[in-house]
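Suppose you are handed a protein chain with no further information: no name, no annotation, nothing but its sequence. What can you learn? This example shows the usual starting point.
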Amino acid sequence: MIARGLLALVVGMLAFASPAAAETLHFEYGPITIAPGQNTIEIEENALKPPVDGWITSFKPNLVYADGTVPRVDVIHLHHGVWLKNLAPLFAAGEEKTTFAAPPGHGWRYLTTDRWHMNHMIHNLTPTPAKVSITYDLEFVPDTAPEAAGMQEIQTVWLDVMGISAYPVFDAQRGKGGRDGRLTYPDEVADAPRHSWTVTEDGALVGTAGHLHPGGLWTDMTLTRDGRSTRLFRSKAVYFEPAGAVSWDVAMTATPPDWRVGLRKGDVISVSGTYDTKRASWYESMAIMPAMFDPGGTGPDPFVTDVDVPGQVTHGHLEENDEHGGEAWGALPDPRRMLARTVGGGGKVAIQGFLYGQGDLNNSGRRARPARVGQGRRLTFVNRDASRTIYHTVTACRAPCNRSTGIAYPLANGPVDFDSGELGFGPRGFTAAANRATWKTPRGLKPGTYTYFCRVHPFMRGAFKVASRARR
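A reasonable first move is to predict its three-dimensional structure. Written in structure tokens, the prediction is:
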């Protein structure tokens, strides 16, 4: 799909006949039709960009409905967006919605001949279709403005623990990592790939901020030179979420405007991400730190001057993150108190129409009763929605796992960790799909009730019971 949005508003219209400071350009990319349960990646040409040559000095993203309101994050959200210039990352956004601002006197060079593309993953957590637009505000200095003459060009350097990938994710599982209950990726994962950027010319870093998913605590940027390493900046996740580091109600710290780091040709820059793996498991996590590089620029030597200063958040709590979840509905039963039901058809549980075929707590009657399986045997879940490119998971959560859905509930915190992956099909490495439609429960489960949810559509809740051999 070619970009169909409109240049909706130019605040203080570009006044080319007279000197002008940075103007705010507001773009709305859309409307984009989001299918029920959508969780796919799209890359499309993007014609929404400034009308004249100049300099971009800041970038602010959002997601809105047609009436301009921002969707609740527990309903639909911008999982990620990457703005590509000539097929290279220029700006990026996640649900934390960090504003990227160049330091004074610096900007990203823009030419009308540049080709822009949009890589977006908009996540619909419900079975209801929707239409939304991705918005972005650019502070822009046209070449006709006197300020443009002294502008210093910065380039975006994409620093990702997974390297350049359309869907660069890793798992941060509970209990993994150090004794502090935290996992730093890739440092504490033995077989994890190591990705870095080798500086091609002398220059300076002039800004950065991290991107993490819920459960993330911070990203670190490190420089290695001649066998020595030093940390350049830690981008911390500042959670407004009352329950702590478990939701999108967060802001990442960015470097202050006067932050500078002198780089030499041959320096190696790497990043890492740290997650809290004491409370829950975090599947399909990210750790990214886009950096602003000033080729030929100067800055202090980080081995002489401590450049690892505290960062600054770019926004406070956002209203779209108000629905935290975890309230006692009274609508869903406690599966631990329910009779179980044997599953026919070789122990297969179909997932269809956003319901688990047996043991779905949102169902009624016999279908709501937990599926029963004998100790030593396994259930097989089959995603019948996969043909509609709808992905589902079977992910352990702490019983009874029957409270209200929100950005902080439920969590992948069952007493026994299990996760099916996103059952469904799609291009490998370019999608969240596991490229299979079936999954079996783990071997060796002890007798008891096991509750689970769908990470893609968290309102989906289910349970199964493992019966002891004596009671089968």
